[in-house]
């Protein structure tokens, strides 16, 4: 199903572009996921309350968000008043980068040293943490291998940088569904002791300390973990039953 969705969108995209897929705006990944979750186009872009939903079907609303969850809270709140919502968040766990010039010609390619994981979710859901305990909201993580197209380096505010043009998914690796506070226990290792601190979580999950701290802020807020004291300057936590 994923390959069929990808073929449909990429075929249409090539027909619409003379310069090639790498020069198009950053919408291809979003469109492929729309057709993967709902092949029937008439169910796309349906107005619900004051917003348009990506997909509306027999299982409720499916909304695909590739970034910027800080803009999503009002929209999700209105959707959840109507029906169940699945929020799809794609995460690139492996990324090949292709740099192209203004004519769409490939200049160089390389594999990005930055690897994503399911824990990337916590950088975004901080902005909607008040909604995470709503049983009508399900988070779907889509872990992908992707190819990212970038421009050649340009000066921007005195620094040279590439501009991201488009992201094309190469392979769907895994889907992970999360619902309710208990669903977030999957992010906590079984070997974490009662009284663990953020550094313990960082080490067990192999994530940066700042992400572990954000994660604990969210999990405490929704009741997945609870603070039970302090160790030095750090709060101590345990998983709630």
List keywords for this structure.
single chain, 241 residues, alpha+beta, 2 domains, 7-stranded mixed β-sheet, two-stranded antiparallel ribbon, 7 helices, 11 strands
* Secondary structure: helix percent: 25-40%
The class by helix and strand makeup works out as alpha+beta
Quick one: overall form? globular
Oligomeric state, counting identical vs distinct chains: single chain
What's the SSE pattern?
Answer: HHEEEHEEHEEEEHHHEE
Note down, in words, how this protein is organized.
The chain is α+β, with helices and mostly antiparallel strands. It folds into two domains: 181 residues, no CATH class; 54 residues, Winged helix-like DNA-binding domain superfamily/Winged helix DNA-binding domain (Arc Repressor Mutant, subunit A, Orthogonal Bundle), CATH 1.10.10.10. Helices cover 26% and strands 37% of the residues. The strands form three sheets. Strands 1, 2, 3, 4, 5, 6 and 9 form a seven-stranded mixed β-sheet that branches. The chain has a two-stranded antiparallel ribbon with strand order 7-8. It has a two-stranded antiparallel sheet with strand order 10-11. Helix 1 packs across helix 2 and helix 6 packs across helix 7. 27% of the residues are buried. About 2% of the residues have low confidence.
Give a quick precis of the structure:
The chain has seven helices and eleven strands. The protein is an alpha+beta fold.
List the helices and strands and how they pair.
Layout: H1 2-16, H2 28-37, E1 44-48, E2 51-57, E3 60-64, H3 73-80, E4 85-100, E5 106-111, H4 122-125, E6 137-151, E7 154-156, E8 159-161, E9 164-179, H5 180-183, H6 198-205, H7 209-222, E10 225-231, E11 234-239
Parallel strand pairs: 3-4, 4-6
Antiparallel strand pairs: 1-2, 2-3, 4-5, 6-9, 7-8, 10-11
Helix pairs in contact: 1-2, 6-7
């Amino acid at each position: 199903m994923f390959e069929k969705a990808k073929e449909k969108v990429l075929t249409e995209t090539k027909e619409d572009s003379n310069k090639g897929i790498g020069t198009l705006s950053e919408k291809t990944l979003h469109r492929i996921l729309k057709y993967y979750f709902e092949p029937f186009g008439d169910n796309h872009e349906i107005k619900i309350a004051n917003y348009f939903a990506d997909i509306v079907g027999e299982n409720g609303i499916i909304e695909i968000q590739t970034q910027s969850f800080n803009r999503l809270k009002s929209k999700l709140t209105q959707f959840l008043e109507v029906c169940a919502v699945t929020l799809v968040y794609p995460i690139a766990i492996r990324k090949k980068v292709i740099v192209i010039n203004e004519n769409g010609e490939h200049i160089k390619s390389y594999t990005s040293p930055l690897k994503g994981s399911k824990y990337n979710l916590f950088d975004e859901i901080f902005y909607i943490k008040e909604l995470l305990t709503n049983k009508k909201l399900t988070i779907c993580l889509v872990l992908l291998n992707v190819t990212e197209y970038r421009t050649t380096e340009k000066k921007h505010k005195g620094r040279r940088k590439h501009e991201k043009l488009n992201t094309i998914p190469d392979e769907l690796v895994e889907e992970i569904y999360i619902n309710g506070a208990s669903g977030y226990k999957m992010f906590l290792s079984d070997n974490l002791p009662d009284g663990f601190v953020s550094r313990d979580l960082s080490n067990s999950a192999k994530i940066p300390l700042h992400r572990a701290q954000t994660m604990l802020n969210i999990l405490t807020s929704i009741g997945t973990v609870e603070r039970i004291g302090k160790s030095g300057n750090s709060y101590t936590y345990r998983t709630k039953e």
